[in-house]
Amino acid sequence: MASRDEKDLTPRVRDAWRAARELYKTEHPTKPQPFLTCTYRSVAEQNELYAQGRFKPGKIVTNARGGQSNHNHNPSPAFDIAFKDKLGNIVWDVVYFRLFAEAGRRSGLSWGGDWVSFKDYPHFELLEGK
Hints:
CATH architecture: 2-Layer Sandwich
Oligomer: single chain
Low-confidence stretches: none
Strand content: 15-25%
Mean pLDDT: 96
């Protein structure tokens, strides 16, 4: 199973995650709050995700084969998130990813939702040059 532990992030990405999370929490205290869904992911797990929607049932969720994703490095220079509301329900609404992306950019992160060829809304990594 993929790691959700922030200890599996590079120090710079971990610091950016924490800063973005705090900005989001301060600016949107009543909205669903972000939590990590993936930091490190093995090559085998990546290949399983790549097969989804291609060789196995489901929707395509990645264009990266095993070894091609930033999640396949440990420590990882990337993370994925989702959100929990006050009742503990997981929320995947893109509006919250957009709000978090604003905080993330100010914290030195780039957002997979800005990618042209494949929108990966839960995905964040360091901005180039940061």
